[in-house]
Specification:
It is a single chain. The chain has 470 residues and is an alpha/beta fold. It has 3 domains: 145 residues, 3-Layer(bba) Sandwich (FAD/NAD(P)-binding domain), CATH 3.50.50; 111 residues, 3-Layer(bba) Sandwich (FAD/NAD(P)-binding domain); 131 residues, FAD/NAD-linked reductase, C-terminal dimerisation domain (Enolase-like, domain 1, 2-Layer Sandwich), CATH 3.30.390. Helices cover 30% and strands 24% of the residues. Strands 1, 2, 3, 4, 5, 6, 16 and 17 form an 8-stranded mixed sheet that branches. The chain has a 5-stranded antiparallel sheet with strand order 18-19-22-21-20. Strands 10-9-8-14 form a 4-stranded parallel sheet, with helices on one face. The longest helix has 23 residues. The chain is globular. The C terminus is likely disordered. The structure holds flavin-adenine dinucleotide. The site of flavin-adenine dinucleotide has 34 residues, from helix 1, helix 2, helix 3 and helix 9.
Length: 470
């Protein structure tokens, strides 16, 4: 077979692969993109974008419900077909990637619609073609929905997140297995569209977040009529009429017309030819160094690289790889101020360490915790104002090591704290800022005693002002 020499081969033109490919094409490189499915990958077709379209719609319904408490009367009639149409027509073009594929090819990229695998460290087989990369091979093959081995589940017509995003109509009732970010976002969306939702979660909702955030979201879910089963595991599944019956470890039985499996993501290294690099292909993730290098001339990024499964992480890594391939000696990747947002209502946004993680790391910390309802903006907002600001500060230097914001637009409010943490701005300096009144991010000021009402910073032993100090 004839081997074609090119500059770079990217395995997977998904969320991160496509972005990297366009960067390299703009630099004049000869790029081959190997992609058996849709150019653009998960984020635009089955993940971030369509799910947030659904979240936006569900939030509008919730706001309509709040009219009755704040502004008169309003009746909303949820209609999922509006969301399904927006996802199908506006967001995904009916899951058609012609525009993205053409954009890649118009810039000079060579697209191969096949699965690819390494046959040598610099050589990739893709269908009938073989490419040798002069400058590098990048592995960006992402992840898929993980389906746990629950006896009987394969007999039940369950949905993964892919099916949920592509749903044209909704069931009457749904049991969601998994209370992580994706399970929580979809639980609230479907409940607001009239589905009777139960969430089964082995630990607590959003278990990577501060316990206060988990409790708040659990309370909100229960208030909205979502049943939450915490510390519960599904032990078996069977069909039940047109729906499914799940059995929990305490022998409770849960019937629902549909089961949604939201138990995280699976990766598969076994078909990538990684043995040619000496990489164990039974591992869950491809190990990289801090410039995302797997071996000389081979890089990995995105979900498969196992740092954190977010689009913003995948894109961040792609920029480092682009610079490295181009010989620009990039700064090493640094995940210390990695922000996370779960788009429930209220949003849960966080950066850095939780209080427990900071303590377990042996840090001497101060913690400020402010209930959003006791802040100026939170109080006046009224219905839908549940939330909090939690700050974890290293006492030795007065610098944030972690922060959580729960509330309306918490993902936006977090921005200030991310910058502060990233730039290592002392809390005393943040306190001296002028916070516009009354804003949600003013709650940060209130948590650390700004607005002239505090007694000092969170490091001040006398500091109380509605905050908890330990
Ligand atoms: C429901 C949901 C909502 C989400 N919401 C958010 C959000 O709001 N914000 C956020 O930051 N993140 C979100 N995420 C996570 C985000 O979607 C992923 O982290 C991101 O898409 C990963 O990008 P990637 O490039 O690693 O992989 P992908 O986008 O999955 O791309 C990988 C590509 O590789 C291809 N491929 C696989 N094997 C091969 C092979 N052998 N050869 C060639 N190609 C191959 C696949 O076909 C695929 O197209 C969400 C995820 C889900 C499931």
């Amino acid at each position: 077979m004839k081997v074609r020499e090119v500059d770079v081969v990217i395995l997977g033109l998904g969320t991160s692969g496509e972005d990297l490919a366009l960067q390299l094409l703009d630099e004049g490189l000869d790029v081959v993109g190997v992609e058996p499915n849709l150019v653009g990958g998960e984020c635009p077709y089955w993940a971030c974008i369509p799910s947030k379209i659904a979240v936006r719609a569900a939030n509008v319904l919730a706001e309509a419900g709040r009219v009755n408490q704040l502004a008169g009367t309003a009746t909303a009639n949820p209609d999922w077909s509006v969301v399904a149409t927006r996802i199908r027509n506006e967001a995904t073009g009916n899951w058609d990637d012609s525009y993205a594929a053409q954009r890649f090819m118009d810039r000079g990229g060579h697209l191969v619609r096949e699965y690819g695998r390494l046959v040598e460290p610099d050589t990739v087989d893709a269908g009938q073609e073989t490419f040798r990369a002069r400058m590098g091979v990048v592995i960006a093959t992402g992840s898929k929905p993980f389906v746990p081995p629950i006896p009987g589940l394969d007999q039940v017509a369950y949905w993964t997140t892919h099916d949920a995003i592509q749903a044209e109509s909704l069931p009457d009732s749904m049991t969601i297995i998994g209370g992580g970010p994706v399970g929580c976002e979809l639980a609230q969306v479907f409940a607001r569209f009239g589905v009777k939702v139960t969430v089964v979660e082995g630990h607590r909702l959003l278990s990577n977040e501060e316990p206060e955030a988990s409790d708040l979201i659990t309370d909100r879910f229960e208030t909205e009529g979502i049943e939450v089963k915490l510390g519960a595991h599904v032990t078996k599944a069977r069909t039940d009429g047109d729906g499914a019956m799940l059995t929990l470890d305490d022998n409770t039985e849960l019937a629902a017309s549909r089961v949604l499996v939201a138990t995280g993501r699976a990766t598969d290294l076994s078909q990538l030819g990684l043995e040619t690099l000496g990489v164990d292909s039974s591992s869950r993730f491809v190990e990289t160094d801090d410039r995302l290098r797997v071996a000389e001339g081979v890089w990995a990024m995105g979900d498969i690289a196992g740092k954190a499964m977010f689009t913003h992480v995948a894109l961040y890594q792609g920029e480092i790889i682009a610079e490295d391939i181009l010989g620009k000696n990039p700064e090493p990747a640094d995940y210390q101020t990695l922000p996370r947002v779960t788009f429930t209502d209220p949003e849960v946004a966080s950066v850095g360490l939780t209080e427990d993680q900071a303590r377990n790391n042996g840090l001497d910390i101060a913690v400020a915790l402010k209930d959003l309802r006791s802040t100026f903006r939170g109080w006046l907002h009224g219905s839908g104002n549940e939330g909090l600001v939690k700050l974890v500060v290293d006492r030795s230097c007065d610098i944030l090591v972690g922060a959580t914001v729960v509330g309306p637009s918490a993902g936006e409010v977090l921005g200030l704290l991310s910058v502060a943490m990233h730039e290592q701005i002392p809390v005393a300096n943040i306190r001296r800022m002028i916070f516009p009144f009354p804003t949600f991010y003013g709650a940060i000021g209130e948590a650390i005693g700004a607005y002239g009402r505090g007694t000092g910073t969170v490091l001040d032993p006398e500091y109380r002002n509605n905050a908890i100090l330990e």
